[in-house]
Amino acid sequence: MTEPIKPADSIARSWVDSMPNGIQPYLRLARADRPIGTWLLLWPCWWSLTLAALGGQHRLSFFYMLLFAIGAFVMRGAGCAYNDIVDADFDAQVERTKGRPLPSGQLSKKQAWAFTILLALIGLVVLLQFNLFTIVLGLGAIPVVALYPFAKRFTNWPQAVLGLAFNWGALMGWAAIHQSLHIAPLFLYLAGICWTLGYDTIYAHQDKEDDALIGVKSTALHFGNKTRTWLTGFYLATTILLLLATVFAQGGLLSILLVTAACLQLGWQVVKLDIHDPGRCLQLFRSNHIFGFLAFFAFVIPALAK
Description:
single chain, mainly alpha, Tetracycline Repressor, domain 2, 16 helices, globular
């Protein structure tokens, strides 16, 4: 059997490379070789779960953490597959993405749809393990997720639509514990949206020349040389909103100090940004996994101590 084509944006060496050739295109369609997306989807879920435990009235649920981890993995995969189905023609014109399974012809759209539906069904099984309020809330994310791949065709702010979809877990974790919503997870959700606007703008600078040529929009193109200023604003808003979420969740001084310290990593990204260096942009984008962990640490340590 012919060796599968490896997209330019794949990890140099990953566990996917050791899998049978017939399976590799499906795993790459789901970005299983690039775990950063799963982490960026998972962190707001885990933030929300730990935020719900800060008040001391509820214990942190490790079972729910596992459910969210499984859900983030399969739903991120389903989302990537769906995006690639919608964007196959665009991806074929971009150097970084033309080797992906659909534009390179390794998979047909029918195969990709079948795989997407399978992953979505697994995600549904995970969702059904929660209370009714959380199930209904989770289904509410579907229209936003469905809209995202089309956003770059009509708005300069597709990263905002991604933020709305990718941070839904900031509401879900709290709902899983309390069976309701509260101002604290709403502030957390807004913080996540601002965070996504920052990191995905950095990511989009890798493709800005190709995007301009094929006529798709992004905040990277919209902000241009003013990106650092916008990034500073997004990350400052992220910091303020995370602190508000902490206060309204009855987090103590320790949580406030740890959240503030975690947000220094966002400042580091602003300082190190070079929008003309794709390698640096990718490095900074991936570093948001570190920020996600630091914010989680800021919530989980005080939560476990109560």
